[in-house]
Amino acid sequence: MSDAGQLPATDLECQALVKRFDDFIAVDDVSFSIPTGAFFSILGPSGCGKTTLLRMIAGFHAPDAGNITIKGTSVLSIPPNRRPVNMIFQHLALFPMMTVAENIAYGLKRRHTPKDEIARKVGEALERVALPDAGNKRINQLSGGQMQRIAIARCLVLDPALLLLDEPLGALDLKLREQMKVELKQLQSEIGTTFVYITHDQSEALVMSDQVAVMNEGRFEQVGTPQELYYDPKTRFVAEFVGDSNLWFGRVDDIADGRLQVTTEDGLPFLAVAAEGQVLAVGELTEIFVRPESVHLSRGTKGIEGYDNSLSGRVDNVFFNGANSAVLVRDQRTGGEILVALPQTGEFADVAKGQDLHLAWNADQAKCFPARETARQLEAAV
Question: Domains of the chain (ranges plus CATH)?
Answer without folding.
Answer: 10-237 (3.40.50.300), 244-374 (2.40.50.100)
